[in-house]
Every structure is written in structure tokens, then in C-alpha cells.
Amino acid sequence: MQKQGYMDKPIINKKVKVQKYPGKGGWTYVILEYNSTEKRNSLWVKVKGTVNGAEIEQYKLASMKNGIYMLPLKAEIRKKYNIKEGDVVDVCLYLDKSDLIVPEEILECLEDFPKALAFFNKMTESNKKFYIDWVTEAKNIDTKVNRINKMIDRLLEGKRMYDI
Question: Of the residues 75, 95, 115, which one is the last residue of a structural domain?
């Protein structure tokens, strides 16, 4: 069964129970089995697809061990689709071989600072994504602008998102 324009066969298409790590700030996630035929150097598998009809792209499955992966469910999707711990959700995932998407508003700002852009372009995809997610998850425009400015300052200093 092909979904919403995806051409490949899904790597995962099943119903799974939503879990949550205990304590404040604990991740909400689902556990999935996936045995790749591809040789991977990474503990992450980039995927796209749907969770209970919610479109996701450029998400990463985190390898736990022996073909068991965890897919974190972001708060934005959980709130929008009323997904909570204990729910059973339909997960349909495909390998995502696309390049990282840098939002136009971030790219335009980076282009004004060639040194920051050059450092950004040299970082790994996951390091770029940390910055992109931090900026795009801002709830209002003032916070977003402040985060873009802080990101540029840090990049000019040659710092990744979590460098001290």
C-alpha cells in the first residue's frame, strides 16, 4: 500500500503503543523493529511517513540494539493529533534519502554572514538540524528572531548548537 506520493515500499507499517520515559522532560516515543539490508555507519535511520495520519519528514529512528529502534514523537505532533502515552498509533515509515531542508528565513539570514554560513555548511547534518529545530520550534516571531541572531553569533564563533 503506497501512501501520499511515496514511491518506495514502507520499511515499517504497523500499529504500536506510545510510551514515555518517566520524569519531567521524558521523551514520548514508539519502539519499532527494523532490520536494514543496507550497511550503515550510523546509529540513526532518517525516515519520513505518517504517525496516525500526521506527516513527518526528516525524522530519525534511534538504534537501541539488534534491530530495535525508537522514534521520538515531537510535542507539536502529539498536541495536534492528541497522541498520548498508552495510545496505539498507526506508523507508516519510509527511508528518507532527501537532503536536509534549511528554511528560507534561516538561509537568507545566514547569507548575510558568509563566515557563519561557511561554518554551518561544514557541520554534520545532525548538527545543522539541531539549530534548525531550535529556531523553527519558537512559538512567536520575536523568539524566532532572537534565536536566529544567537545561532549566527555562535556560528561566527565556530560553535555547534551544544558546544559550551
Answer: 95
Domain range holding 19? 12-95
| Residue at which a domain ends, from 69, 95, 121 | 95
With CA atoms as reference, report the closest residue to 82 among 28, 127, 42.
28
One domain, residues 119 and 45: no
Question: What is the per-residue pLDDT across 66-117, written as a single tens digit (0 to 9) for each?
Answer: 889 999 998 888 888 899 999 999 999 999 888 888 999 999 999 999 999 9
Instruction: Tell me which H or E stretch contains 94.
Output: strand 88-95
pTM: 0.66
Q: Is there a contact between 152 and 117 (Cβ–Cβ < 8 Å)?
A: no
